Amino acid sequence: MPLKFKALCVLSLAPLCPFKFSVVFKKGESKALDCQKQKVKMKGFQRTIILITIFLCCLAGYVWTYQYLNFSEPPEKSDAVVLFVGPEQEQRLKEAHQLMHEGYADTLIIPAYQQVFVMSDGQAVKTSLPNLSRSYIKKYPAFYENTHIEVLEARNMMEKLGLRSAIMVSAPWHMRRINIISSHVFNPEQFQGRCVGSRFLRSERFLLSFSLSDLKIVVTEAVKIVYFIAYEVVV
Known about the structure:
This protein is of the alpha/beta class. The protein folds into two domains: 21-69; 72-201 and 208-234, 3-Layer(aba) Sandwich (Rossmann fold). It has helices at residues 3-13, 18-69, 89-101, 146-161, 175-185, 212-234, and strands at 80-83, 107-110, 115-120, 123-127, 165-170, 192-197. A six-stranded mixed β-sheet has the order 4-3-2-1-5-6, sandwiched between helices. β3 and β4 form a beta hairpin. α2 packs across α6 and α4 packs across α5.
């Protein structure tokens, strides 16, 4: 039978078999819908994988940064303890007093307040230092970060007192920035310093007690370190 005749027969019989053709059409439509659903599921799965990957990368970055910032050295006998002010000031001051009572230093310097204390009969007694003014911030460029100014003032005060070694005390997560700044400010041939984070502030098991304040500390400290290095390079 010729091919053209067969085609004409099929077309002529099509109106007589509407059910068969509708079934074929529905099967084709069903396969297309299944394929589309599969693509949507695949895209959703890919998005989930991407989000999980981003989360794990952020978590790893947070853990590494926290560990990097959480810096502390064992104390050594020094001429003075230099206290840096900030949040949880009571615990920072307690660490400074503890180091003095343990015999690591006899002098306490608080650059932010231009204050000097000397141990006398087991007590830290405030003393005066000539030519110091609480308006010292005006001497520095406006873009200088506060901790940078404190380190500069600590150096100036130590030079006036004839001191050549110090234990820097602050919160554990603040010590890395203090260490970086001190390495730029002090001459290592003329000064010896140790960075000691307060033992009275939480510094371990941070993932078990994670809070938004911890995240804020990590981000703020990291940004300030980058900011200090940037303007040191530029200026």
